[in-house]
Amino acid sequence: MEIKGKRAIVTGAAGGIGRATAVLLAARGVAEIALVDVKEEALAETAHLVEAEGARAMAHALDLSDIPATEAWFKVHGDVDILHNNAGVVSGLPQFPDVDAARIRWIVDVNLTSLVAATQIAVQAMKARGGGVIVNTVSTVALGTGFYDAMYATTKAAVMMFTRCCAPLKDECNVRVAGMLPGLVATPILDTTGAGGKSEWMKQVLANNEACEPEDIAAGVIRLIEDDGLAGGDWVAVRRLGGRIDYQWGHAGTV
Predict the structure, then answer these.
(1) Which residues form a coiled coil (predicted)?
(2) Domain of 94?
């Protein structure tokens, strides 16, 4: 897809990957971007950065764990060409099985239910306007055999499967749904794995792995958006290995 002049939505846009993607979309010439997050002050800062790149920015404070509110918002604002379903949360402490049921529902709703709802509404609008591209932020944990944060890994594996199941939408609706699988990324989400900071298990992960920057992931998102030669359900995993960014490409029918 040619990005210039298009309309986009980026969720989880207050920082990290969402902010980096929004700014890069603006730099590539997108006309306007709706920025979605619960963090209003940081969201306003993202809007300022986007507008500095020449795009119109609209900041929307929205709690994606509130599914009726999410559905209502997307029905009003979801008529766009590009959707980056990027918002996501980790469990923090306590971990499963000690976490309470309300927090489990919150994690599932932010990471999965709201993403499905947003995609459903956006696909219908994109089909009516001639097509579009949706990029879902997954995680490389979806390619593994397990992860310390059970609920995060479970929801991300579900997003991976959902992305694959959306592969036929390219032919049926001219809407291409793709998956972005970041490896370890230096974003504020790492500081929410423990009680008031990084958990001990996250410190060990950081000690044994190289972290990407949000801009590295944003560049991959742009590649997914721009390349209409990709099939529906295609995905790319992005990691930093030996000081260099490594891309692992995959298709809906592969692991």
Answers:
(1) none
(2) 7-250
Q: Of the candidates 163, 151, 229, which has an alpha carbon nearest to the alpha carbon of residue 193?
A: 151
**244-250/132-137 β-pairing:** unpaired
Condensed to tens digits (0 to 9), the pLDDT of residues 5-14 reads 999 999 999 9
Q: Which CATH number do you get for residue 47?
A: 3.40.50.720
The CA radius of gyration of the chain, in Å to the nearest whole number, is 17
> How far is it, in rounded angstroms, from Cα 78 to Cα 92?
31
* Residue 166 covered by a domain: yes
Q: Determine, yes or no, domain membership for 255.
A: no
Mean pLDDT of 142-150: 86
- Residue 235 inside a domain? The answer is yes
- A 10 A CB-CB count for 233 gives 24
Q: Which residue has the higher pLDDT, 66 or 149?
A: 66
Q: For position 94, what pLDDT does the model report? A: 86
DSSP states of 138-162: --GGGGSS--SSHHHHHHHHHHHHH
The Cα–Cα gap between 46 and 59 comes to 8
Q: Is the pLDDT score of 255 beyond 70?
A: no
Count of domains for the chain:
1
Q: How far, in Å, are 69, 105, 193 from residue 64 at the CA level?
A: 8, 12, 19
Q: Which residues, in sequence order, are CB contacts of 219 under 8 Å at separation 6+?
A: 24
Q: How far is CA 59 from the centre of its chain?
A: 17
